[in-house]
């Protein structure tokens, strides 16, 4: 039986990943007639959510909680989505770096055959010039936010544990996500929150900061598919950009989501925006697409054998 652990399972990304994997294994598992062929273990912290399997509510910034969880489960795969982006260094370092170190330390000591996916961020790259796009994984990172800095530490820690101890850890460097449940601290989360408020007539128009910049967005469903691909095919110690590989102007992104939610012609009010602007950033996804192409070749070969 394969045992899969998802941390951060109570967040939008964790829930989307769980539902994708559960559906995938039901459809594709060669042992799908055996209900014990795969078992999910979910760990979260914060809001209680309704999921069809047990969620362990643990603070994974505490070493004893991480060691207890891994000792009890002994997972074959770990999707480590837990983390924070408060922009408070002490908090984000604890949740993004120390927590990851506890997982990696346990794996190198007790679970050498377990594979782990660590989730990085495009914030690690920092400010890039328009002509430097699309950004490849080997672009020299220079984060300009606390969150980006702690995520870079996390990435370097994961690579250190691979090089020094041979821990089987892959890094997904995520660009921008959209979907219901995303944190309202982010544009996409604020947009979906305002859509709900607009539909319930709590607001008469939409309000955002500057929408002139361009970003790289994928849906929660696309994210889950990429994470699964990296768990199956990603090479240990490697970083893979996870994004669409193309930019979209933020104003156009907002309009696109509004139209998908059957909202047309709504007023969009732009607030005065004083922060330093990053005009455009988007991913070079050749590296992850190569894995995707390999997966397609394998699937086609399997079809021919049937």
Per DSSP, what share of the residues sits in E-state strands of 2 or more residues? 15-25%
Mean pLDDT: 92
* Low-pLDDT residue intervals, each spanning 5 or more residues: none
Radius of gyration: 20 Å
What series of H and E elements makes up the topology? Answer: EHEEHEHEHEEHEEEHEEHEH
Total number of strands: 13
The CATH superfamily of the domain at 2-178 and 216-245 is known as NAD(P)-binding Rossmann-like Domain
Largest sheet: 7 strands, parallel
- Termini separation comes to 25 Å
What order do the strands of the largest sheet run in, or round the barrel if closed?
3-2-1-4-5-6-11
Number of helices: 8
Q: What is the name of the CATH architecture of the domain at 2-178 and 216-245?
A: 3-Layer(aba) Sandwich
Describe, in plain words, how this protein is organized in 3D.
It is built from eight helices and 13 strands. With 306 residues, the protein is α/β, with parallel strands linked by helices. Helix 1 packs across helix 6 and helix 6 crosses helix 8 (286-305). The two termini are 25 Å apart. The model has no long low-confidence stretch (mean pLDDT 92).
Question: Which helices and strands, and how do they pair?
Answer:
Layout: E1 2-7, H1 12-28, E2 38-44, E3 55-57, H2 63-73, E4 77-80, H3 89-110, E5 115-121, H4 146-165, E6 168-174, E7 176-178, H5 187-199, E8 206-208, E9 214-215, E10 217-219, H6 220-233, E11 239-242, E12 248-249, H7 250-260, E13 268-270, H8 286-305
Parallel strand pairs: 1-2, 1-4, 2-3, 4-5, 5-6, 6-11, 7-10, 8-13
Antiparallel strand pairs: 9-12
